[in-house]
Amino acid sequence: MNSGITPMQILDVGAGAGTMSLLLARAIPSLAITGIDYSPGQVRASQEMKRRAGIDNCRFQLGDAMDIPYAAESFDLAFSVNSIKHWPDPVRGLAEIRRVLRPRSRAFIAEVSRNTSPEGLREFADKYCAWYVWPPVMRWCLRNVVFGNSYTAGEAANFAWRAGFSAVSSEEVPGPFFLVVLTK
Predict the structure, then answer these.
(1) Is residue 117 helix, strand or coil?
(2) What ranges make up the beta strands (E) of the chain?
(3) What dihedral do alpha carbons 48, 51, 54, 56 form, nearest 10°?
(4) Cβ–Cβ under 8 Å, residues 13 and 109
(5) Residues 6+ apart with CB under 8 A from 83
């Protein structure tokens, strides 16, 4: 029986292997989640994870944050986790997210923070370091490759203001990440 209610449309920009989209889709089956990623390999991986999980309220497709392949005002909410540091132009990517959001909708941007302290980086590396990776190598890679190419919460908030969002809040959060909440 169709209730006639349109599900909330959510966009995951830079979905990667689909982990966050699939967790959300499983937790709240009434949502309709679309994940886009620039990498064909990541899209294939996310589609395979979706198939294995048997989740049907989520889809994945190839897409570029610089030119999101949807009409204006198509989504009720958007999020991006650990992706903005990979975008060639974060202001343009955020403007694209703003374009596809409906009026007064929100976007959530979470990313590793370049401001992470040495202690925070060590804790993170120790927690996620695989047994076969020498911890000093892991810490160097995180500091110089992953975290070093990221932004601070303040920089991301500045990108959002420049992209035209009407309200922006940002904070450093444990883990060591930042979260920026944007309102169209």
Answers:
(1) coil
(2) 9-13, 32-37, 58-62, 75-81, 101-112, 167-173, 177-183
(3) 100
(4) no
(5) 13, 14, 16, 65, 111
Higher pLDDT, 116 or 82: 82
Which residue type, as a one-letter code, is found at position 130?
A: A
pLDDT tens-digit readout, 47-84: 999 999 999 999 999 999 999 999 999 999 999 999 99
CB 82 within 8 A of CB 156: no
Average pLDDT, the chain: 91
Could you write out the DSSP letters of every residue in 40-51? HHHHHHHHHHHH
Query: Which residue type sits at 150?
Result: S
pTM: predicted TM-score of the whole model, two decimal places:
0.89
Amino acid at site 122: R
Rg, Å, the chain Cα set: 17
**Tokens 């449309």 label which residue?**
9
- Closest-CA residue to 121 (of 148, 142, 144, 146): 142
Q: Please tell me the number of Cα atoms within 13 Å of 156 on its side-chain side.
A: 32
Gap between the Cα atoms of 68 and 98, Å rounded: 10
Residue 1 is predicted with a pLDDT of 43
Task: Please tell me the distance from the alpha carbon of residue 81 to that of residue 109, in angstroms, as a whole number.
Answer: 6
The SS3 assignment for 113 reads strand
Residue 2 has pLDDT above 60, yes or no: no
